[in-house]
Amino acid sequence: MTDNPRPRAATSRKSSALSGRGRVPGDKSISHRAFMFGGLAAGETRVTGLLQGEDVLRTGEAMKAMGARVERQGAAWIIQGTGNGCLLEPEGPLDFGNAGTGVRLTIGLVGTYDMTTRFVGDTSLSRRPMGRVLDPLRQMGTQVVEAQAGDRLPITLRGPKHAAPITYRVPMPSAQVKSAVLLAGLNTPGVTTVVEPVMTRDHTEKMLLGFGAALEVKTDPEGVRHIRLEGQGTLKGQEIAVPGDPSSAAFPLVATLIVPGSDVVIENVLMNPTRTGLILTLQEMGADIEPMNRRASGGEEVADLRVRSSHLKGVAVPAERAPFMIDEYPVLAVAASFAEGETLMQGLEELRVKESDRLAAVAAGLKANGVDCTEGEATLAVRGRPEGKGLGGATVETHLDHRIAMSFLVMGLATEKPVTIDDETMIATSFPEFMALMRGLGAEIETVEEAV
Ligand SMILES: O=C(O)C1=C[C@@H](OP(=O)(O)O)[C@@H](O)[C@H](O)C1
Ligand SMILES: C=C(OP(=O)(O)O)C(=O)O
After folding, report:
1. Looking at the predicted structure, is the pLDDT value of residue 17 above 80?
2. pLDDT tens-digit series, residues 306-319
3. Does residue 4 lie within any of the structural domains?
4. CATH number of the domain where residue 199 is located
Protein backbone atom coordinates (compact mmCIF):
# COMPACT_ATOMS: atom_id res chain seq x y z
CA MET A 1 0.00 0.00 0.00
CA THR A 2 1.37 3.42 -0.89
CA ASP A 3 -1.29 5.86 0.33
CA ASN A 4 -0.11 9.26 1.43
CA PRO A 5 0.06 8.98 5.23
CA ARG A 6 -0.70 12.67 5.80
CA PRO A 7 -3.82 14.02 4.12
CA ARG A 8 -4.07 17.83 3.93
CA ALA A 9 -7.38 19.69 3.68
CA ALA A 10 -7.84 22.74 1.46
CA THR A 11 -10.49 25.46 1.18
CA SER A 12 -11.37 27.73 -1.72
CA ARG A 13 -13.47 30.88 -1.42
CA LYS A 14 -15.27 33.39 -3.58
CA SER A 15 -12.56 35.16 -5.58
CA SER A 16 -12.36 38.39 -7.52
CA ALA A 17 -11.94 38.23 -11.30
CA LEU A 18 -9.20 35.81 -12.40
CA SER A 19 -6.69 37.18 -14.89
CA GLY A 20 -3.34 36.50 -16.53
CA ARG A 21 -1.70 33.78 -18.57
CA GLY A 22 -0.82 30.30 -17.47
CA ARG A 23 0.64 27.04 -18.79
CA VAL A 24 -0.59 23.65 -17.65
CA PRO A 25 1.82 20.69 -17.34
CA GLY A 26 2.37 18.13 -20.07
CA ASP A 27 -0.35 15.73 -21.12
CA LYS A 28 -0.52 12.75 -18.76
CA SER A 29 -1.48 10.17 -21.42
CA ILE A 30 1.36 11.21 -23.72
CA SER A 31 3.86 11.45 -20.83
CA HIS A 32 3.18 7.88 -19.65
CA ARG A 33 3.59 6.62 -23.21
CA ALA A 34 6.77 8.66 -23.73
CA PHE A 35 8.40 6.84 -20.80
CA MET A 36 7.05 3.44 -21.90
CA PHE A 37 7.86 3.63 -25.59
CA GLY A 38 11.16 5.44 -24.98
CA GLY A 39 12.10 2.78 -22.42
CA LEU A 40 11.30 0.06 -24.92
CA ALA A 41 12.77 1.55 -28.11
CA ALA A 42 16.34 1.07 -29.25
CA GLY A 43 18.55 4.13 -28.74
CA GLU A 44 17.82 7.47 -27.17
CA THR A 45 14.49 9.21 -26.63
CA ARG A 46 14.49 12.86 -25.55
CA VAL A 47 11.32 14.18 -23.96
CA THR A 48 10.54 17.82 -23.23
CA GLY A 49 7.40 19.13 -21.54
CA LEU A 50 6.92 15.83 -19.66
CA LEU A 51 4.35 15.88 -16.86
CA GLN A 52 6.40 15.39 -13.70
CA GLY A 53 3.42 14.15 -11.75
CA GLU A 54 3.54 11.16 -9.40
CA ASP A 55 1.62 8.89 -11.79
CA VAL A 56 4.04 9.44 -14.66
CA LEU A 57 7.18 9.26 -12.51
CA ARG A 58 6.08 5.81 -11.36
CA THR A 59 5.96 4.68 -14.99
CA GLY A 60 9.51 6.00 -15.35
CA GLU A 61 10.57 3.99 -12.28
CA ALA A 62 8.91 0.85 -13.67
CA MET A 63 10.75 1.19 -16.98
CA LYS A 64 14.01 1.65 -15.06
CA ALA A 65 13.28 -1.49 -13.05
CA MET A 66 12.99 -3.36 -16.37
CA GLY A 67 16.29 -2.20 -17.80
CA ALA A 68 15.74 1.24 -19.35
CA ARG A 69 17.97 4.16 -18.37
CA VAL A 70 15.94 7.22 -17.46
CA GLU A 71 17.44 10.50 -16.35
CA ARG A 72 16.54 14.13 -16.12
CA GLN A 73 18.84 16.65 -17.79
CA GLY A 74 17.56 20.14 -17.08
CA ALA A 75 14.18 20.54 -18.77
CA ALA A 76 14.52 17.29 -20.73
CA TRP A 77 14.27 13.60 -19.87
CA ILE A 78 16.71 11.32 -21.62
CA ILE A 79 15.76 7.69 -21.96
CA GLN A 80 17.98 4.87 -23.25
CA GLY A 81 15.63 2.06 -24.20
CA THR A 82 16.23 -1.68 -24.03
CA GLY A 83 15.08 -2.46 -27.58
CA ASN A 84 11.71 -4.07 -28.35
CA GLY A 85 11.46 -7.52 -26.80
CA CYS A 86 14.39 -6.92 -24.43
CA LEU A 87 12.81 -5.76 -21.15
CA LEU A 88 14.31 -7.44 -18.07
CA GLU A 89 12.46 -9.12 -15.24
CA PRO A 90 12.09 -6.57 -12.43
CA GLU A 91 13.62 -7.56 -9.10
CA GLY A 92 10.73 -6.32 -6.97
CA PRO A 93 7.05 -5.42 -7.43
CA LEU A 94 6.18 -2.49 -9.71
CA ASP A 95 4.31 0.07 -7.59
CA PHE A 96 1.99 2.25 -9.66
CA GLY A 97 0.55 4.27 -6.78
CA ASN A 98 -2.69 5.91 -7.98
CA ALA A 99 -2.14 5.41 -11.73
CA GLY A 100 -4.64 3.38 -13.77
CA THR A 101 -2.98 4.25 -17.06
CA GLY A 102 0.47 3.33 -15.74
CA VAL A 103 -0.53 -0.06 -14.41
CA ARG A 104 -2.93 -1.12 -17.19
CA LEU A 105 -0.59 -0.22 -20.03
CA THR A 106 2.41 -1.81 -18.29
CA ILE A 107 0.44 -4.99 -17.64
CA GLY A 108 -0.03 -5.14 -21.41
CA LEU A 109 3.57 -4.23 -22.14
CA VAL A 110 5.12 -7.00 -19.99
CA GLY A 111 2.29 -9.56 -20.10
CA THR A 112 3.73 -11.34 -23.13
CA TYR A 113 7.27 -11.55 -21.71
CA ASP A 114 8.51 -14.91 -20.46
CA MET A 115 9.06 -13.51 -16.95
CA THR A 116 7.30 -12.92 -13.65
CA THR A 117 6.10 -9.44 -12.75
CA ARG A 118 4.14 -8.26 -9.70
CA PHE A 119 2.00 -5.10 -9.74
CA VAL A 120 0.83 -3.14 -6.69
CA GLY A 121 -0.84 0.22 -6.09
CA ASP A 122 -2.56 2.43 -3.53
CA THR A 123 -6.01 1.82 -2.00
CA SER A 124 -7.78 3.59 -4.86
CA LEU A 125 -5.93 1.67 -7.60
CA SER A 126 -6.37 -1.62 -5.73
CA ARG A 127 -10.16 -1.18 -5.96
CA ARG A 128 -10.16 -0.73 -9.74
CA PRO A 129 -10.93 -3.60 -12.13
CA MET A 130 -7.95 -5.08 -13.98
CA GLY A 131 -9.87 -7.94 -15.62
CA ARG A 132 -10.39 -5.71 -18.64
CA VAL A 133 -6.67 -6.00 -19.43
CA LEU A 134 -6.09 -9.48 -17.99
CA ASP A 135 -8.80 -11.08 -20.18
CA PRO A 136 -7.10 -10.40 -23.53
CA LEU A 137 -3.72 -11.32 -22.04
CA ARG A 138 -5.08 -14.68 -20.90
CA GLN A 139 -6.05 -15.27 -24.54
CA MET A 140 -2.48 -14.50 -25.56
CA GLY A 141 -1.10 -17.08 -23.13
CA THR A 142 -0.31 -15.04 -20.02
CA GLN A 143 -0.84 -16.76 -16.67
CA VAL A 144 -2.34 -14.70 -13.88
CA VAL A 145 -0.46 -16.26 -10.98
CA GLU A 146 -1.94 -13.97 -8.32
CA ALA A 147 -4.92 -11.59 -8.36
CA GLN A 148 -7.35 -10.40 -5.69
CA ALA A 149 -11.11 -10.91 -5.93
CA GLY A 150 -12.54 -9.47 -9.16
CA ASP A 151 -9.08 -9.36 -10.82
CA ARG A 152 -7.75 -6.60 -8.61
CA LEU A 153 -4.23 -5.65 -7.46
CA PRO A 154 -1.85 -6.95 -6.21
CA ILE A 155 -1.44 -9.02 -9.36
CA THR A 156 1.40 -11.30 -10.44
CA LEU A 157 1.79 -12.29 -14.08
CA ARG A 158 3.85 -14.99 -15.73
CA GLY A 159 4.19 -14.53 -19.47
CA PRO A 160 4.22 -17.41 -21.98
CA LYS A 161 7.29 -18.78 -23.78
CA HIS A 162 5.69 -17.72 -27.07
CA ALA A 163 2.66 -15.43 -27.00
CA ALA A 164 -0.24 -15.99 -29.39
CA PRO A 165 -1.47 -13.02 -31.46
CA ILE A 166 -5.20 -12.26 -31.13
CA THR A 167 -7.92 -10.15 -32.65
CA TYR A 168 -9.61 -8.38 -29.77
CA ARG A 169 -12.80 -6.35 -29.84
CA VAL A 170 -12.63 -3.87 -26.98
CA PRO A 171 -15.83 -4.39 -24.96
CA MET A 172 -15.98 -0.92 -23.38
CA PRO A 173 -14.78 2.45 -24.67
CA SER A 174 -11.30 2.40 -23.10
CA ALA A 175 -8.02 3.69 -24.48
CA GLN A 176 -6.25 1.85 -21.68
CA VAL A 177 -7.60 -1.55 -22.80
CA LYS A 178 -6.92 -0.81 -26.48
CA SER A 179 -3.39 0.24 -25.59
CA ALA A 180 -2.69 -2.72 -23.31
CA VAL A 181 -3.54 -5.18 -26.11
CA LEU A 182 -1.43 -3.29 -28.66
CA LEU A 183 1.52 -3.16 -26.27
CA ALA A 184 1.18 -6.90 -25.61
CA GLY A 185 1.25 -7.30 -29.39
CA LEU A 186 4.64 -5.59 -29.61
CA ASN A 187 6.33 -8.69 -28.13
CA THR A 188 4.12 -11.22 -29.93
CA PRO A 189 4.95 -12.89 -33.26
CA GLY A 190 2.49 -12.17 -36.08
CA VAL A 191 -0.34 -9.66 -36.23
CA THR A 192 -2.31 -8.48 -33.21
CA THR A 193 -5.53 -6.67 -34.12
CA VAL A 194 -7.64 -4.45 -31.91
CA VAL A 195 -11.18 -3.75 -33.03
CA GLU A 196 -12.45 -0.53 -31.54
CA PRO A 197 -16.20 0.05 -32.05
CA VAL A 198 -16.13 3.42 -30.27
CA MET A 199 -13.09 5.60 -30.86
CA THR A 200 -11.09 6.65 -27.81
CA ARG A 201 -7.97 8.81 -27.45
CA ASP A 202 -5.49 7.76 -30.13
CA HIS A 203 -2.12 8.57 -28.52
CA THR A 204 -0.91 4.96 -28.56
CA GLU A 205 -1.53 4.58 -32.29
CA LYS A 206 0.05 7.94 -33.16
CA MET A 207 3.07 7.53 -30.93
CA LEU A 208 3.79 3.90 -31.88
CA LEU A 209 3.78 4.98 -35.53
CA GLY A 210 6.22 7.74 -34.60
CA PHE A 211 8.52 5.14 -32.98
CA GLY A 212 8.46 3.12 -36.19
CA ALA A 213 5.98 0.33 -35.34
CA ALA A 214 4.30 -1.48 -38.24
CA LEU A 215 0.80 -0.31 -37.35
CA GLU A 216 -2.17 0.37 -39.58
CA VAL A 217 -5.59 1.81 -38.74
CA LYS A 218 -8.62 1.27 -40.96
CA THR A 219 -12.10 2.56 -40.21
CA ASP A 220 -14.90 0.47 -41.71
CA PRO A 221 -18.19 1.87 -43.10
CA GLU A 222 -19.83 1.41 -39.65
CA GLY A 223 -17.16 3.64 -38.11
CA VAL A 224 -15.46 0.71 -36.34
CA ARG A 225 -11.68 1.07 -36.15
CA HIS A 226 -9.42 -1.90 -36.92
CA ILE A 227 -5.90 -1.40 -35.58
CA ARG A 228 -3.40 -3.91 -36.89
CA LEU A 229 0.06 -4.26 -35.39
CA GLU A 230 2.90 -6.48 -36.61
CA GLY A 231 4.72 -7.76 -33.56
CA GLN A 232 8.44 -7.99 -32.85
CA GLY A 233 9.39 -5.06 -35.07
CA THR A 234 12.02 -2.47 -34.29
CA LEU A 235 11.17 0.67 -32.34
CA LYS A 236 13.58 3.58 -32.59
CA GLY A 237 14.14 6.37 -30.04
CA GLN A 238 12.38 9.67 -30.76
CA GLU A 239 12.29 13.35 -29.81
CA ILE A 240 8.99 14.09 -28.08
CA ALA A 241 7.61 17.51 -27.16
CA VAL A 242 4.65 16.87 -24.85
CA PRO A 243 1.82 19.40 -25.28
CA GLY A 244 -0.16 20.82 -22.34
CA ASP A 245 -2.82 18.53 -20.88
CA PRO A 246 -6.39 19.51 -21.83
CA SER A 247 -7.66 17.53 -18.83
CA SER A 248 -5.61 19.80 -16.55
CA ALA A 249 -6.47 22.94 -18.54
CA ALA A 250 -10.12 22.14 -17.76
CA PHE A 251 -9.71 23.43 -14.18
CA PRO A 252 -8.46 26.99 -14.81
CA LEU A 253 -10.79 27.06 -17.82
CA VAL A 254 -13.97 26.34 -15.83
CA ALA A 255 -12.76 28.58 -12.97
CA THR A 256 -12.44 31.46 -15.44
CA LEU A 257 -15.91 30.86 -16.83
CA ILE A 258 -17.66 30.85 -13.44
CA VAL A 259 -15.80 33.68 -11.63
CA PRO A 260 -17.41 36.90 -12.92
CA GLY A 261 -15.22 39.34 -14.84
CA SER A 262 -12.40 36.84 -15.44
CA ASP A 263 -10.18 36.83 -18.53
CA VAL A 264 -7.39 34.23 -18.78
CA VAL A 265 -5.16 32.69 -21.46
CA ILE A 266 -4.08 29.07 -21.03
CA GLU A 267 -1.13 28.38 -23.29
CA ASN A 268 -0.06 25.38 -25.36
CA VAL A 269 -3.07 23.11 -24.83
CA LEU A 270 -3.35 19.84 -26.81
CA MET A 271 -6.25 20.09 -29.28
CA ASN A 272 -6.41 16.43 -30.39
CA PRO A 273 -10.11 15.94 -31.28
CA THR A 274 -10.32 12.83 -29.07
CA ARG A 275 -9.62 15.13 -26.10
CA THR A 276 -11.62 18.30 -26.74
CA GLY A 277 -15.15 17.17 -25.84
CA LEU A 278 -15.27 19.48 -22.81
CA ILE A 279 -14.39 22.58 -24.84
CA LEU A 280 -17.11 21.73 -27.35
CA THR A 281 -19.68 21.14 -24.60
CA LEU A 282 -18.83 24.36 -22.78
CA GLN A 283 -19.06 26.30 -26.05
CA GLU A 284 -22.53 24.81 -26.58
CA MET A 285 -23.37 26.07 -23.09
CA GLY A 286 -22.39 29.58 -24.21
CA ALA A 287 -18.81 29.67 -22.93
CA ASP A 288 -16.47 32.25 -24.43
CA ILE A 289 -13.44 30.08 -25.27
CA GLU A 290 -11.31 31.17 -28.19
CA PRO A 291 -8.53 28.89 -29.41
CA MET A 292 -5.76 31.19 -30.63
CA ASN A 293 -2.50 30.58 -32.43
CA ARG A 294 -3.37 27.01 -33.48
CA ARG A 295 -0.16 25.27 -34.47
CA ALA A 296 1.44 21.85 -34.88
CA SER A 297 3.69 20.57 -32.11
CA GLY A 298 5.16 17.08 -31.82
CA GLY A 299 2.67 15.52 -34.26
CA GLU A 300 -0.33 17.09 -32.50
CA GLU A 301 -2.25 20.35 -32.78
CA VAL A 302 -1.98 22.79 -29.88
CA ALA A 303 -3.55 26.19 -29.20
CA ASP A 304 -3.63 28.94 -26.59
CA LEU A 305 -7.10 29.20 -25.12
CA ARG A 306 -8.46 32.67 -24.32
CA VAL A 307 -11.29 32.25 -21.84
CA ARG A 308 -13.65 34.88 -20.47
CA SER A 309 -16.31 34.46 -17.81
CA SER A 310 -19.64 33.64 -19.41
CA HIS A 311 -23.31 33.20 -18.71
CA LEU A 312 -23.74 29.44 -19.14
CA LYS A 313 -26.92 27.60 -20.14
CA GLY A 314 -27.69 23.95 -19.45
CA VAL A 315 -27.42 21.46 -22.35
CA ALA A 316 -27.86 17.73 -22.95
CA VAL A 317 -24.40 16.23 -23.52
CA PRO A 318 -24.68 13.25 -25.90
CA ALA A 319 -23.47 9.88 -24.63
CA GLU A 320 -21.31 9.45 -27.78
CA ARG A 321 -19.11 12.32 -26.64
CA ALA A 322 -18.17 10.66 -23.34
CA PRO A 323 -14.87 9.06 -24.52
CA PHE A 324 -13.65 12.48 -25.70
CA MET A 325 -14.17 14.13 -22.31
CA ILE A 326 -14.21 11.22 -19.90
CA ASP A 327 -11.98 12.76 -17.22
CA GLU A 328 -13.69 16.15 -17.49
CA TYR A 329 -17.18 15.28 -16.18
CA PRO A 330 -16.44 16.24 -12.56
CA VAL A 331 -15.43 19.76 -13.57
CA LEU A 332 -18.23 19.98 -16.16
CA ALA A 333 -20.64 19.21 -13.31
CA VAL A 334 -19.16 22.19 -11.47
CA ALA A 335 -19.67 24.44 -14.50
CA ALA A 336 -23.24 23.13 -14.76
CA SER A 337 -23.86 24.14 -11.13
CA PHE A 338 -23.56 27.77 -12.25
CA ALA A 339 -25.53 27.39 -15.50
CA GLU A 340 -29.10 28.43 -16.08
CA GLY A 341 -31.36 25.37 -16.37
CA GLU A 342 -30.49 21.70 -16.47
CA THR A 343 -27.36 20.03 -17.83
CA LEU A 344 -27.84 16.35 -18.58
CA MET A 345 -24.73 14.15 -18.85
CA GLN A 346 -25.20 10.68 -20.33
CA GLY A 347 -23.14 7.56 -21.03
CA LEU A 348 -21.20 7.84 -17.78
CA GLU A 349 -20.82 4.15 -16.82
CA GLU A 350 -17.02 4.31 -17.03
CA LEU A 351 -16.95 7.08 -14.39
CA ARG A 352 -17.74 4.45 -11.78
CA VAL A 353 -14.34 2.74 -12.19
CA LYS A 354 -11.96 5.70 -12.07
CA GLU A 355 -9.82 6.73 -9.06
CA SER A 356 -13.18 6.86 -7.24
CA ASP A 357 -16.75 6.18 -8.28
CA ARG A 358 -16.78 9.65 -9.81
CA LEU A 359 -20.48 9.72 -10.49
CA ALA A 360 -21.27 9.07 -6.81
CA ALA A 361 -18.47 11.32 -5.54
CA VAL A 362 -19.54 14.26 -7.72
CA ALA A 363 -23.22 13.89 -6.86
CA ALA A 364 -22.41 13.70 -3.12
CA GLY A 365 -20.14 16.76 -3.29
CA LEU A 366 -22.68 18.79 -5.26
CA LYS A 367 -25.56 17.89 -2.95
CA ALA A 368 -23.52 18.67 0.17
CA ASN A 369 -22.90 22.13 -1.29
CA GLY A 370 -26.55 22.79 -2.06
CA VAL A 371 -26.61 21.95 -5.77
CA ASP A 372 -29.81 20.35 -7.07
CA CYS A 373 -28.77 17.22 -8.99
CA THR A 374 -29.93 13.69 -9.80
CA GLU A 375 -27.60 10.71 -10.11
CA GLY A 376 -28.76 7.88 -12.39
CA GLU A 377 -27.04 4.58 -13.20
CA ALA A 378 -25.00 6.25 -15.95
CA THR A 379 -26.35 9.80 -15.97
CA LEU A 380 -26.07 12.99 -13.98
CA ALA A 381 -28.51 15.88 -14.22
CA VAL A 382 -27.45 19.18 -12.65
CA ARG A 383 -29.77 22.13 -12.22
CA GLY A 384 -27.59 25.20 -11.83
CA ARG A 385 -27.87 28.50 -10.04
CA PRO A 386 -26.17 31.34 -11.91
CA GLU A 387 -23.98 33.35 -9.50
CA GLY A 388 -23.85 30.42 -7.08
CA LYS A 389 -26.33 32.00 -4.63
CA GLY A 390 -26.70 29.92 -1.47
CA LEU A 391 -24.20 27.31 -2.68
CA GLY A 392 -21.08 26.04 -0.86
CA GLY A 393 -20.33 25.65 2.84
CA ALA A 394 -19.54 21.90 2.98
CA THR A 395 -16.54 19.58 3.09
CA VAL A 396 -16.21 17.21 0.14
CA GLU A 397 -14.81 13.69 0.39
CA THR A 398 -12.22 13.20 -2.35
CA HIS A 399 -11.66 9.41 -2.04
CA LEU A 400 -8.01 9.71 -3.23
CA ASP A 401 -9.27 11.22 -6.51
CA HIS A 402 -7.34 14.21 -7.91
CA ARG A 403 -10.10 15.25 -10.31
CA ILE A 404 -12.69 15.37 -7.51
CA ALA A 405 -10.27 17.44 -5.42
CA MET A 406 -9.51 20.00 -8.15
CA SER A 407 -13.13 20.23 -9.33
CA PHE A 408 -14.49 21.16 -5.92
CA LEU A 409 -11.69 23.66 -5.27
CA VAL A 410 -12.73 25.31 -8.54
CA MET A 411 -16.35 25.30 -7.38
CA GLY A 412 -15.55 27.18 -4.16
CA LEU A 413 -14.12 30.11 -6.16
CA ALA A 414 -17.65 31.11 -7.19
CA THR A 415 -20.02 29.80 -4.50
CA GLU A 416 -21.43 32.11 -1.85
CA LYS A 417 -19.80 30.10 0.96
CA PRO A 418 -16.33 28.45 0.84
CA VAL A 419 -15.87 24.83 -0.22
CA THR A 420 -13.45 22.54 1.63
CA ILE A 421 -11.95 19.26 0.41
CA ASP A 422 -10.72 16.66 2.90
CA ASP A 423 -7.39 16.10 1.12
CA GLU A 424 -5.44 17.81 -1.64
CA THR A 425 -2.22 15.78 -1.59
CA MET A 426 -3.22 13.47 -4.45
CA ILE A 427 -3.50 16.45 -6.85
CA ALA A 428 0.25 15.89 -7.34
CA THR A 429 -0.51 12.70 -9.26
CA SER A 430 -1.55 14.68 -12.34
CA PHE A 431 -1.11 18.42 -11.70
CA PRO A 432 1.56 19.28 -9.11
CA GLU A 433 1.47 22.97 -10.14
CA PHE A 434 -2.31 23.32 -9.66
CA MET A 435 -2.26 25.44 -6.48
CA ALA A 436 0.49 27.77 -7.73
CA LEU A 437 -1.13 28.24 -11.12
CA MET A 438 -4.59 28.91 -9.70
CA ARG A 439 -3.29 31.32 -7.06
CA GLY A 440 -1.25 33.10 -9.74
CA LEU A 441 -4.50 33.78 -11.62
CA GLY A 442 -6.04 35.20 -8.43
CA ALA A 443 -7.84 32.15 -6.99
CA GLU A 444 -8.26 32.18 -3.21
CA ILE A 445 -7.30 28.70 -2.08
CA GLU A 446 -5.67 27.84 1.22
CA THR A 447 -4.38 24.57 2.59
CA VAL A 448 -4.61 23.38 6.18
CA GLU A 449 -1.89 21.10 7.50
CA GLU A 450 -4.06 18.76 9.59
CA ALA A 451 -6.59 16.38 8.11
CA VAL A 452 -10.21 17.41 8.76
O1 LIG B 1 -5.22 5.85 -22.08
C2 LIG B 1 -5.13 6.82 -21.30
O3 LIG B 1 -4.10 7.52 -21.21
C4 LIG B 1 -6.30 7.17 -20.49
C5 LIG B 1 -7.53 6.63 -20.77
C6 LIG B 1 -8.76 6.90 -20.00
O7 LIG B 1 -9.06 5.74 -19.24
P8 LIG B 1 -9.96 4.52 -19.82
O9 LIG B 1 -9.21 3.83 -20.86
O10 LIG B 1 -10.18 3.63 -18.61
O11 LIG B 1 -11.22 5.16 -20.28
C12 LIG B 1 -8.60 8.09 -19.08
O13 LIG B 1 -9.64 8.11 -18.12
C14 LIG B 1 -7.28 8.10 -18.37
O15 LIG B 1 -7.13 9.25 -17.55
C16 LIG B 1 -6.13 8.12 -19.37
C1 LIG C 1 -8.78 8.29 -14.79
C2 LIG C 1 -7.64 8.94 -14.67
O3 LIG C 1 -6.40 8.37 -14.66
P4 LIG C 1 -5.91 6.86 -14.49
O5 LIG C 1 -6.94 5.94 -15.05
O6 LIG C 1 -4.61 6.84 -15.19
O7 LIG C 1 -5.71 6.64 -12.99
C8 LIG C 1 -7.60 10.42 -14.62
O9 LIG C 1 -6.50 10.97 -14.68
O10 LIG C 1 -8.64 11.09 -14.49
Report:
1. yes
2. 999 999 999 999 99
3. no
4. 3.65.10.10
- Best probe residue, ligand 2, of 174, 355, 359 (max atoms within 8 Å of C-beta): 355
List the residue whose alpha carbon is closest to atom 4 of ligand 2: 100
In the residue annotation, 327 being an active-site residue is answered as: yes
Boundary-marking domain end, from 177, 207, 241: 241
Contact indicator for 133, 108 with CB cutoff of 8 Å: yes
Q: Does residue 186 sit in the same domain as residue 278?
A: no
Question: Per residue in 264-283, pLDDT tens?
Answer: 999 999 999 999 999 999 99
- Which phi and psi angles does 328 have, rounded to 5°? -100, -5
350 within ligand 2 shell (Cβ under 6 A): no
The total number of structural domains that make up the chain? 2
CA 391 to CA 128: how far, in whole Å?
32
Q: Which of 27, 29, 426 to mutate to test the pocket of ligand 1 (most atoms within 8 A of CB)?
A: 29
Asked, for residue 1, whether it belongs to a domain, the answer is no
* Ligand 1 touching residue 170 (CB < 6 A): no
Establish whether the linkage from the previous residue to 418 is cis, with ω within 30° of 0: no
Q: How far apart are CA 313 and CA 385, in angstroms?
A: 10
Range of the structural domain that residue 393 is part of: 9-26+243-448
What is the pLDDT confidence band of residue 299, given thresholds at 50, 70 and 90? confident
* 101/181 same-domain check: yes
